[in-house]
Amino acid sequence: MTSAPTTRQPLAPIAERAAPPAEVPVPQVDGLTWRPLAVADAPALFRLVSAVEEHDQHPFRTSLEETEEIFEGDWRDLPRDTLVGLDADGEPRAYASVDTRPGDTTVVRAFVQGAVHPQWRGRAVGRQVLAWSTARARQLLAASGKELPARIAGYVQDDDAPERRLFEAAGFTATRFYSTLRRDLSLPVPEVTLGEGLRVVPWTPELDEATRLAHNDAFRDHWGSEPATPESWVHGRSMFAPEWSVLVVDDTPATSTGPDGVAPRASTGPDGPVVAGYLLSGRYEQDWPVAGYSSGYTETLGVRRDYRGRKIAVALLSAGMAAYKAGGVEYAELDVDTENPSGAHGLYASLGYEKKDGSRMYSIEL
């Protein structure tokens, strides 16, 4: 007897599922006054974030340039999507930020982040800040008008038990897990020979739009990934290391278009090469004293679906490691989803990558 196929129940309207409150509850904490963040707050916010990361012994340190990225993005509404709690001296002691991205087409998402200064903990500040963030996230999801599955999400280090408990008490569930891997660059870097027409080239600004199109194609079968728009693609590049970023291009003519209906050509014109794969890197020197070693970080690695099985990922990783090594650093690092569908874990292990630490995504699925 053949069982009947299961059918997905139709979603209720996003405005109903998100259940947005009419008003977002501003925290009530003796000694703190609350207002939205402003661009001029970046240095003071950086001091707050640094104090939190040092106290909580995070394996990284956020730079001032990364802190300033909170204020960037034409899609952001800072007066409504950010909050800071100031003490009597005007110093930030807690903050929250909620961010959505304009390109979401399969799941509409709102990401929450925030922190409370160690000296202000134990007063329910974190609970109230997260409640504010969650309420504002619900408003943003409802206002998107996108009749899609929806998600409110935040990221936590695996060993940060207090923050894990905070998210869990607020109704979030750990739904995805990530591993930070590192590879000792004193080991030999493999040499890879690519097939005819394929070659490794340095990243250039002229090839960046073609790289974005390659990224959207490469990640359309990855959980949690949504298309990058031209605006969101270039957001968050304060630590970008172009000298450590490489592409694999195909010089042969392309005959098809990608999933977005656009031929995977370079932005310089229709006769440019196809970007078949890419490795974009970051240089996080502020992390090196904490880690105890220097490293090059692989931000994003992807291969177009039509080009898989042709050693492109190995060639990119090898070229990236060679660039890091030439730059005088000791390790290559990257993060990977533990449920990555492309077999990435086996690939990284075969190249000598080992787990350093981990993080997880907490979410409310709507």
UniProtKB/TrEMBL annotation:
Residue intervals of the N-acetyltransferase domain: 32-190, 198-366
Matching InterPro entries: Acyl_CoA_acyltransferase (IPR016181), GNAT_dom (IPR000182)
GO molecular function: acyltransferase activity, transferring groups other than amino-acyl groups
Coiled coil: none
Domain of life: Bacteria
Name recorded for this polypeptide: GNAT family N-acetyltransferase
Listed CDD domains: NAT_SF
PROSITE patterns named in the record: GNAT
Pfam families associated with the record: Acetyltransf_1 (PF00583)
